[in-house]
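Entry, Tuesday afternoon. Goal for today is a structural model of the target with zinc ion bound, before we commit to ordering more compound. Inputs were pasted exactly as handed over by J.K., no edits. I checked the ligand SMILES twice against the vendor sheet because last time a stereocentre got dropped in transcription.
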Amino acid sequence: MGLGNRSFEKLNAEYGEIRRENERLYDERLQRIYSSYPELKDYDDEIAVAGLDLAFAGVRGTDGSSLKAKYDELTASREKFISEKGIDPAYRERIYTCPVCRDTGYIVKEDGPAEKCGCFKKRESEILLEESGMSGILEKNNFSVMRTDLMDDENKAHFLKAVDLCRDFIATFDTDYRNIMFCGTVGTGKSFLSACIASELLASYHSVVYMSAKTLFDSLAEAQFAKGDAAEAAALRDRIYDCDLLIIDDLGTEMTNSFVGTELFTIINERFNARRSVIISTNLELPLLRDRYSDRIFSRITGSYDVLKMCGPDLRSVY
Ligand SMILES: [Zn+2]
């Protein structure tokens, strides 16, 4: 899915702004040159009229040879004038920040649908990363910096099995609907593996939202109870409910109350119904999860999540 509607519209508006700004720069440059060389404006105006006459003659099918001669003569005089005055011939060229897509964000192919330009994809990635809440987290948390050398054989085998499942989760993300729950004590790689998955999915233009449970429920409570900006509150809910992957980190560290219980169930249930994946990490043992939240949350999670029990020593200093 990539960017949500709101962000997509914002990005398209950003391109509109770039086009307007470049149009303004183009006009400004042209006016500056015309005020220094008024004759150049006369040439350009006359050539524009001559060009139109020629085009009309073509449409009507009448003999345009004299019009063509006039047009050629005018353009030749203009070129001569430009070179005599030392004017940059590019003064009439449109200004584009990205000449490849002419600041539209898309490349239109003759024999197929329009494709996103590289510049658009780059902005899309930047926005996805910004919205994921993971800027600064991913450099230290991705598969390329993964280390298992400090684990004993048993823990290593267990960890690598979890890694395999994560890689499989990524590889089948667009075709299979799956969820993961990482359980285990502090520093066993739960958040690390969540971030590895996020990093790979962001790179393939999926929208990911990563929030600690505390931030998630605090933000939702603020949006609901504080008289804040309604549009901002709606945007927060859109992100949480509509992103391709939601990561709730450290479930159980938030202050649990009935609001949290209801919100958690709604998020898990709505995303389940929409077949949108969730990754949860928690220090809580499964029975504690049932005690703290509710049977319905517990059964939803055990029924539709791969539960990965992480173990081993605290590896936070390694990552
Ligand atoms: Zn472009």
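Residues 15-103 form one domain.
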